Amino acid sequence: MPDHSNALFPSSATSPGGVSIELDSVTKTYPGQKVSAVEEFSMRIEPGELVMFVGPSGCGKTTTMKMVNRIIEPTSGSIRIDGQDVLGLSPHELRRHIGYVIQQIGLFPHMTIAENVATVPRLLGWSKQQIAARVEELLETVQLDPAEFANRYPRQLSGGQQQRAGVARALAADPPVMLMDEPFGATDPITREKLQSEFLRLQAEIGKTIIFVTHDFDEAVRLGDRIAVLSERSQVEQFDTPAAILAAPANEYVASFIGSGAALKRLALMPVGTVRLSGATGDLGGRPSIDPASTLRDALNLLVVTGAEAVDVIDPTGNRLGQLTHADISAALTQAGLSGSAVR
Ligand code: ADP
Ligand code: MG
Fold it and tell me: For 271, which DSSP code?
């Protein structure tokens, strides 16, 4: 693929993943409003990091995000991408180098899926062959068979398929930065979970710097490298890894956002293979078993469902590594809380 992004964000030429994003005391006051929608927002996002903005409706998530690609102009403050002041760049140029996915998907209804995905490469002047190859590659990446979907119109796709096409379009020119505003919000729970796991798989491959807005804390925990819990005027109540926020919410506001079941949510972040197991190794036989890549939540679930007092941890080669009891699971949780380590 022709790499036009290098011209704008130099270090994306040498490191294939993302670039840093820095916001410094960014404020947005909409015309005629007394109260700012975003007030003195500061944050540094590392290259390749997936940061979730989570907070209630109206707290300023979308406004904060849209200032990064200047769909909304800040009232004051500064924003740098890859060290460059974005306020000094042409907004049109800037947007061609930032992928953008919105809740309403926003596919162009009178264009086919292929034409939608080709939008930015066309603006960047890629050749027909380059565009065709890229469209095919991307539709495969988001698991929409090109032979079946390339020439359909958006209305001929399900909601989940449209979301995938939206992600493919945002990725088209391989932008080092992606902004995603509640991209899976409009889909049913089963489709959403599928899109989330596909998205995680994709991000593991491409390593973009991503700001992902959601009002769903569980989605934030599942996807984020770090989560920014926001309150009114986009005030940052806590900015940390999911494990750290779940283990030690900074205040009542964050705790209420986590809701019930914080311990279970933490267990879901902890792979069985990363905790201390008990019991002898070697085959004892007859017990329920689980593989080391499963989470402690899966292990607990198995204990509850089977009524067994321990589950065996068995690796893919059939090797028994040890066992997990209720007490082992509780101990792992306490240990992670004490060390404050980010178990991800
Ligand atoms: P969120 O994405 O968290 O739901 P928004 O960033 O959309 O929040 O909105 C933040 C605040 O700014 C809200 O109070 C909203 O009503 C207000 N707001 C958003 N857009 C405009 C606008 N164009 N003009 C005036 N106020 C706006
Ligand atoms: Mg919003």
Answer: B
